[in-house]
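step=encode ok
step=design start
structure_in=
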């Protein structure tokens, strides 16, 4: 059995508390997510990070792991004799058990006071990254995933993404992971959700943002304009005097939140101008320039001084 340095995998000291471990995991999981990081080793690194977190976040597993002491990563070692006595009557019983499985079994066995006999070993948990569209996050979806099995092969698994999935969410599929041994339960699969870039919307939690281009007269006079949503276009009332950068909110037009509600949709205003002018348009803009006392630079300077 090879030793794995879970603290080094997460980049935390051995005395780190639960909150430090959680923050380190979330930061590294985002950085090394296979859909975000193009490095060839990203997927393996992501799995190592997830395995380390699964051990260190659980007090029983972490306590058992700490009993192993400090060792070089990758060093071959045998479990302590007391582990063998408690769980299988001999160290040889652990020959085909992975460290993560062994720690999971040790934590459960200690908690319930198990002693001798073949220990029930729970099936391996699997972590996998899933990238979905905003539409699938909003409405839910059924996906086919290719997962590696314990024999080095692959299996296809149909999974359901519920409505309301969000960026960074970790979904648990109970009993869909590796098969248990000696009467142990099957493991789980954890799906790490990322949202694919959308050509129109930007997600912030369950809120959505889009860029709304307005003509100068629409911004100045006010207007009703059509804007897209995930459920189809709706009319948005633009108040008179709307300036560039203003966010206009459409309540409950964002992503489903999985609890029967929805986030909001924010239209971020950009005032655009024609690239070329017809003679009549030029004449009207010249009339406006002559008649208007509006000075946008004076307004900006006044706002900056306040």
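sequence_out=
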């Amino acid at each position: 059995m090879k030793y794995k340095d879970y603290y080094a995998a997460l980049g935390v000291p051995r005395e780190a508390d639960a909150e430090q471990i959680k923050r380190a995991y979330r930061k590294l999981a985002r950085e090394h997510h296979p859909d975000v990081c193009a490095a060839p080793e990203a997927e393996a690194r992501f799995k190592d990070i997830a395995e380390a977190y699964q051990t260190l976040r659980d007090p029983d597993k972490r306590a058992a792991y700490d009993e192993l002491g400090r060792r070089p990563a990758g060093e071959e070692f045998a479990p302590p004799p007391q582990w063998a006595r408690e769980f299988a009557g001999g160290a040889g019983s652990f020959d085909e058990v992975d460290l993560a499985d062994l720690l999971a079994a040790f934590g459960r066995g200690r908690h319930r006071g198990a002693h001798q006999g073949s220990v029930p070993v729970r099936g391996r948990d699997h972590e996998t990254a899933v990238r979905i569209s905003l539409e699938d996050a909003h409405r839910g979806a059924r996906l086919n995933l290719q997962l590696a099995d314990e024999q080095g092969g692959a299996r296809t698994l149909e999974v359901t993404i519920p409505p309301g999935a969000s960026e960074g969410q970790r979904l648990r599929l109970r009993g869909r992971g590796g098969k248990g041994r000696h009467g142990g339960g099957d493991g789980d699969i954890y799906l790490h959700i990322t949202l694919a870039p959308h050509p129109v919307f930007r997600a912030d939690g369950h809120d959505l943002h889009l860029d709304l281009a307005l003509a100068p007269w629409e911004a100045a006079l006010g207007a009703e304009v059509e804007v897209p949503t995930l459920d189809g276009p709706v009319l948005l009332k633009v108040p008179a005097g709307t300036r560039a950068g203003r966010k206009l909110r459409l309540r409950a037009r964002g992503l489903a939140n999985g609890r029967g509600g929805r986030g909001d949709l924010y239209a971020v205003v950009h005032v655009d101008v024609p690239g070329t002018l017809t003679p009549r348009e030029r004449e009207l803009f010249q009339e406006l320039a002559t008649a208007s006392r509006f000075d946008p630079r004076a307004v900006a300077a006044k706002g900056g001084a306040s």
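step=design ok
step=annotate ok -> Confidence is low (pLDDT under 50) at residues 88-92, 109-117.
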